[in-house]
Amino acid sequence: MSFIDFSADRCILNNPTILPLAAGFLWNPHMMIHMTARGFATAQFMQPEPAKYARAQIMEAKHFMLPEQGTYAHHPGRFFYVKDRETGSLFSAPYEPVRAPVEGFAFEVTPTDIRWRVDRPGLRVEITLALPVDDACELWEVTLINSGARPRNISFYPAFPLGLMSWMNQSATYDAALGGIVANCVTPYQKIEDYFKNQSLKDKVCLLSEQTPLAFETRQARFEGEGGLHKPDAIMAEQMADGVALYENPIAALQFDHELNKGERVTHRFLFGPAFDDAEIMRLKATYLSEAGFARARVAYAAYMSAGVKSINIESSDPHLDSFVNAWLPRQVYYHGDTNRLSTDPQTRNFLQDAMGSVYVKPETARKTLLKALSQQHANGSMPDGIRMYDGAELKYINQVPHTDHSVWLALFLEAYLDETDDYAVLDTLVTDGETQTALPVRERISAANQWLIQAVDHRGLNFIDQGDWNDPMNMVGWKGKGVSGWLSLATAHSLRLWSQILERDGKDGAEYAEAAQRFNNAMNTHLWDGDWYGRGITDDDVKFGVKADIEGRIFLNPQSFALMSGAADADKQKRMVAAIEDQMETPYGVEMITPAYTHMREDVGRLTQKFPGVAENGSVYNHAAIFYIYSLYQVNESEKAFELLRKMLTGPNDEDYLRRGQLPVFVPNYYRGAHRQHPEASGRSSHLFNTGTASWLYRSVIEGLFGLKGSREGLRIAPQLPASWPSARVTRHFRGATFEIDITRGKPGLSVDGQVLAGDAITDIVAGKTYKVLVTI
Amino acid sequence: MSFIDFSADRCILNNPTILPLAAGFLWNPHMMIHMTARGFATAQFMQPEPAKYARAQIMEAKHFMLPEQGTYAHHPGRFFYVKDRETGSLFSAPYEPVRAPVEGFAFEVTPTDIRWRVDRPGLRVEITLALPVDDACELWEVTLINSGARPRNISFYPAFPLGLMSWMNQSATYDAALGGIVANCVTPYQKIEDYFKNQSLKDKVCLLSEQTPLAFETRQARFEGEGGLHKPDAIMAEQMADGVALYENPIAALQFDHELNKGERVTHRFLFGPAFDDAEIMRLKATYLSEAGFARARVAYAAYMSAGVKSINIESSDPHLDSFVNAWLPRQVYYHGDTNRLSTDPQTRNFLQDAMGSVYVKPETARKTLLKALSQQHANGSMPDGIRMYDGAELKYINQVPHTDHSVWLALFLEAYLDETDDYAVLDTLVTDGETQTALPVRERISAANQWLIQAVDHRGLNFIDQGDWNDPMNMVGWKGKGVSGWLSLATAHSLRLWSQILERDGKDGAEYAEAAQRFNNAMNTHLWDGDWYGRGITDDDVKFGVKADIEGRIFLNPQSFALMSGAADADKQKRMVAAIEDQMETPYGVEMITPAYTHMREDVGRLTQKFPGVAENGSVYNHAAIFYIYSLYQVNESEKAFELLRKMLTGPNDEDYLRRGQLPVFVPNYYRGAHRQHPEASGRSSHLFNTGTASWLYRSVIEGLFGLKGSREGLRIAPQLPASWPSARVTRHFRGATFEIDITRGKPGLSVDGQVLAGDAITDIVAGKTYKVLVTI
User: Fold this and answer.
1) I need a labelling partner for A55 at 20 to 30 A (CA). Which of A97, B100, B484, B649 fits?
2) Of A419, A472, A530, A540, catalytic
3) Is A679 on the interface with B (CB under 8 A)?
């Protein structure tokens, strides 16, 4: 039995109870919405900091998005109640909060909208949610169809709880002139300096209806009454009381009565979202709230989505992988690069890695990101913890904890960018930084960042870790200024090696950086090679950790991946590391980040923050770490292992895999629960979070690793690493304006282009606009 | 039909649906719990900042306690489900979340515990919640009684949701050795400086059971399943699955199966609360979790409550008032003085006014409070915005907004303290402040505070308002340094007059302060008397506000009250003010603070923060302001009006009054919704918040105003101002160790003590330990 239909243009879940957290997400440059199959929603818009327009019933604290924590009866949602006026029977579409059994159910996520089809006895409800490009608002279309044999007399109620808008003041009522419910609140400011900032906030929320409702209710408590959300008093009544909310949590609920003959249908359109004032509401209504307006918004949104060009289109032996790589993965990559995860202070490492994904879908965005990041470089060459997206943006949350790794990501980004675009001119572009107001070429700035890494070392030549580096949940290993990071030392070696290569390709002297890279690799082999893998670091108190002697936190994935990339590990070491990872870290759901997961603080090793201790992130299959391992396996031609793990990351094509993980295959989440050997029963579940640097590295691994279609100064290199189980594959690769239609088959290795056999592995002298027919035999 | 039974030792609500927010509160020095009749709970404990042990399902932001905002399906609660194993029928006691209809219901709040009696067909559930004195934990006793004719086969399930304990890590399971469910979490720290602070936090929560359960469930999502909280899958099943929560929101749910014959009963005892480690849990269990342990805790708690001595016991023509004044009001006063509202940085004005209440119930607390406050006086004589209760406590929320009124409350406090105790020696006590490390006598410090007020004036001689002063929701009237406060100028005059009197009574020269008081009164009469009332202030831009010309914010209550006290208003002005207030500000629920309520920001007047704009606090019947008006009316012998308003504040003895306000009469709330002339339908409802300076001034108004039993240097002055409707009254007054049994009757004015007629109104030469029989004719 199949619960999920998955293809490149849609993913359908046909049972609301199977995956309670199954969700799709939509975004535009102003907002995003995470919408579950059952009707719960988490939506944010930017003004300029992320804000909510439909809130929880209590004041919510801000934290990173963590949808894994699930929903609850009063979670914000978009509910459409339908009551049979003759029998009194009640259900809500899509499913929450009534949770009435359905005869048929389809939750359909497409790249451009989210749809539902809900079949109840004799009645079908079709729902579509779409976003426009230019505004932060939701466009809802709901069609009720009498699919039974007898005429039906029904009441229909869209009901969108607005939650606690403000503890200071909140209100809502129906505004006939605007044609909908308008809720208002006062931002709870208290300090004078905030007042002037807050004056421009959108404190209103509206639910506009194309049709005039029969009645309305805006008081959440009266709406529910004793019946509760699952059987609201206001809906069980003959007619809503036209209640006006004054200083109480509001809801936007409307009532429409319909008589539908057999086969008859009626369509409603609603607009829901934040607004600054009545004039803006009026504009939103005029722009969108009609059949024609919805259609125009749809066309514009499709155009916006197609601006994220795809680098690759594949036909392999794995149709699930084909759909994911051809449509969903580049969509996720595009989302990251285009929205910066709806953050105003993206972590520098995320900002650069998300931009690395843009290299393949929107290279002009990638270039801008590099220049923006460098404009905030410190005078000493190091990169800041976060990039401020507007004047006055503050470094928040984790960006207030100093991390030492931000400078290593520049060269990693640049390698991808230059290979794809050959835009070496960017290295001569002048960038002025805010700290010193000095204009320097990009080349000098990247060198300065790498020089900073070179000098930030202890007596062993290993990089200080200070309060933390990337991804491993420790912030107290080196806070006294002595502790060092094995992973960071290897990442520095990798960065230096890449930067040396880039300089050489640009006709400059890169030897200094190549030599420095070697020094870091040597220091690691001297001090942190533990016999079968690399240790993670050495604490302020001179204790090595991530080594065999440890009972918890014995082996860390990141040092191994970066040792494969940096050239630190020779063939023997490579073999030992891969074997140790297979033995200790692989799970049915991928490779764990740390094994065994820490269950308590080790005071001698450094205290672990953020994700410590437990079964989730600390020992999780943290996909951003896992994808580096996969990428690094392709670097050393471990293609079978690489593909096996890549396939695990995407979950299988079979429904049981999704059931176990509780998610739809429309995006790769930031982690699956791990600590598999400690808590097998809790491992495997998805975090449901689509914000992750995994996407860009996964796309890069598929393009440059699995299919081996990597750019270079000379042109396009072709060196596929298909798994043995694939007899062949076809790929279309878009590269520097040209199109390459590539057939990969098994046989005597060889490469021909447009019928002509090539000696090397590169197609050179590429002509933009041209289509190349390429035959590869492997 | 009466829904509420109210007396001095209990208040009973007999229908769970009538007042959905009806609640009692219990506290000890470590914690407080606000418990609704229906089973929802809000509880905090100190470690040392206020913390929760049962949380919401999502991360909650901190704000002031605002229980008016109500509850929702997943609000934290203490639920006891009962399932009939034969019929499958389900209910939950007290009422949430199943909300099954009851045959009988009693929610009983007493000064020392909270009880329920829930009658379902053939089954009675009796529940008692008590707190110990020395620990932050809840003691629950639940008795199931077969009240029907046939034997019953039931399952019983205490189910306490624990909510989102930490986004970092949380878990829960049953621990057989400890005899209960223990949940654990990791405090989401990130910064090194927080780590060392957070190490001592109580991150565990336990639900211990005296009996060993049959089964348990600790996973909130599995507990609910598709049935939801109102029909949980785990409870509809034959037996709970012994589920262990790992990184998911936990619940503490236990199952016990019982067969009860006709008339048979079974009693369970549970302990619920936070803990540091297993050793602490073991200690809590050993100390409390038995019939004897519960009984010992009950005795100790009764002793703790009786340490709050009552100053007065009355027998009037108003039994409701008698109960409230004799038991509930001093309980609320005691709560404030003993816990500082569970805050670690009480606002200085609240700290001193709450201590003013302690003058009548625990004078040694009042004295300590004064010395503590003065130890944080600034070098320039002014008082800080909040008092730090421990080293490292931070000024938070509103205490970060500078207010100019904190220095006026010292003399107001001192008048009450000295009148009650005659402890003039306190004025010679040396206090060292943290800022200058100088030891100064209290007398000099109070003078310095008043001198600071004298000099903080503009060219008119009115006090600057800066970013705000007491209680009126404005923080931008004078932020540019020019705007002045009419209320504060009158409060300063009152403070100076009181201080002058205190100095004179102490044999010192107070003339300087009396003259300064007169200057402030004169300045007010010159610049802010508006014809029928005093204006509220003058903005930075020289605009008077709170005057007749204003459409909103036309009249403010506080300036009028303080003009009555300060002596600014002559008899003609007094009459005009009282008439204007009666005409514009009185409502069926009391006197509003501002009329008409602001509905939008007036940029020329100053921007109103905290409570602006709207129907709640801004135009509310803000009881703390209303009680000052009542107190001031007694000062000028407007006793009929004073009593009329005092009675309104306490709500009537009739159930409809409570229905309208939605609360039980066990405490006076900080406000009732106002803006009565703008939104009559929304006015009158209680805020449900028991933290309010109203309590201490209300107690003082009853003691010194209504019953006219005020202390002085000479002894006890006796000048009752009973309402005309009372033919007589009896009072017992405890004063300086003596007891006064006072009979007040109507007739030719006179006073006799122990049969001896007195010439004046004062009983002098009081002998501690003695009981005086006093006859007063008025």
Assistant:
1) B100
2) A472
3) yes
Would you say B156 and B170 are in contact if contact means Cβ atoms under 8 Å apart? Answer: no
* pLDDT confidence tier of residue A6, bands split at 50, 70 and 90: confident
Q: What residues in B contact A397, CB-CB < 8 Å?
A: 190
Cα distance between residue A530 and residue B528, in whole Å: 82
Inter-chain touch B169–A69, beta carbons under 8 Å? no
Residue whose structure tokens are 């929903």? A71
pLDDT at B271 over 70: yes
Query: How far A745 CA sits from the closest chain B CA (Å)?
Result: 47
Tokens coding A766:
């590429």
Residues of B in contact with A164 (CB under 8 A): 69
**Partner A contacted by B613 (CB < 8 A):** yes
Residue pair A22/A37 in contact by the 8 Å Cβ criterion? yes
The 10 Å Cβ neighbour count of residue A103 is 12
Using N-to-C axis directions, what is the helix angle for B329-339 and B363-374, rounded to 10°? 40
Chain B nearest C-alpha distance from A166 (Å): 10
Contact criterion met (CB < 8 Å) for B246 and A169 = no
Count of other CB atoms within 10 angstroms of residue B96: 23
CA distance B450 to B518: 14
Over range A597-623, report the average pLDDT: 65
Taking only residues 388 to 417 of chain B, the set having a beta carbon closer than 8 angstroms to any beta carbon of chain A reads 397-398, 400-401
Task: Please say if A472 is a catalytic residue.
Answer: yes
Structure tokens at A88: 């009194």
**Pairing label, strands B771-777, B738-745:** parallel
pTM of the predicted protein model = 0.92
CA distances from B351 to A231, B27, B496, B559, B700 (A): 46, 18, 20, 22, 16
pLDDT in tens, B33-80: 878 788 877 777 887 777 777 777 776 776 666 666 667 888 889 999
| Helix and strand element counts for chain B (H, E) | 19, 40
Of the candidates B203, B405, B472, B657, the residue annotated as catalytic is: B472
Question: What sign does the dihedral A64-A69-A73-A77 (CA atoms) show?
Answer: positive
Residues 195-224 in B contacting A (C-alpha not used; CB under 8 Å): 195, 221
Question: Over the stretch A227-253, which tens digit does the pLDDT of each residue have?
Answer: 999 999 999 999 999 999 988 889 999
Closest residue to A616, CB basis, from B230, B247, B611 = B247
Structural tokens at position B215: 């089964």
